[in-house]
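Q: I'm writing up a methods section and want to include an example of the input and output format. Could you take the sequence below and give the corresponding predicted structure tokens, formatted cleanly so I can copy it straight into the document?
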Amino acid sequence: MQPFTPEEHDLIAGAISRAEQTTSGEIVVVARASSSYRYFALMCVALASLAVPLPFIHFTKWPIEYVYLTQLAVFVIGVLLVQWEPFRVAIAPRALKHGRAHLRAVEQFLVQNMHTTAGRTGVLIYVSWAERYAEVIADDGIYKKVTPQVWDDLIAELTDAIGKGERTKDFIAAIERCGATLAKHFPPVPPDQNELPNHLIVLDVAEPA
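A: Here is the clean output for your methods example:
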């Protein structure tokens, strides 16, 4: 994922501020890759290298030295490929990627103190760019009034838009839709305090798994 420019950060922060003016809810947007998948990719390379000798031993008369050199070449090429993040992400199973992304979303909900707002009206929009995964986590106060289907529809629209590459526009559209939903059920209650940050939070992968 290319770094967000200062202009993109400002546009997204402005969208959050406008959305929160219409509601007592709090919106936080987080974007990141959820894992580097380095360990998983290395495991795949190791297993592939271990499997290389079998067909040569059974179906050829190659000297064992040639078989070993072929195995070594496969391992070296695999290790070099593992240094390329798109390759690591591409070979990771969908279930693994979505599982990691969901865990990071829950983690960020707690790290960003979404569960500490007055009225329990925090909403986290989490986007894991490398995995093309998005999730909305809302606090208890919101789930009592807004059905999960509303957030599922928002996420379906956002993940579809992620694949088209207009990320700033996509984020703003999701924020506006989230704000409109919150405004219906949680109108502003003066004095309305801004309890959470109104900017896009972009995090690097914290662990090499």
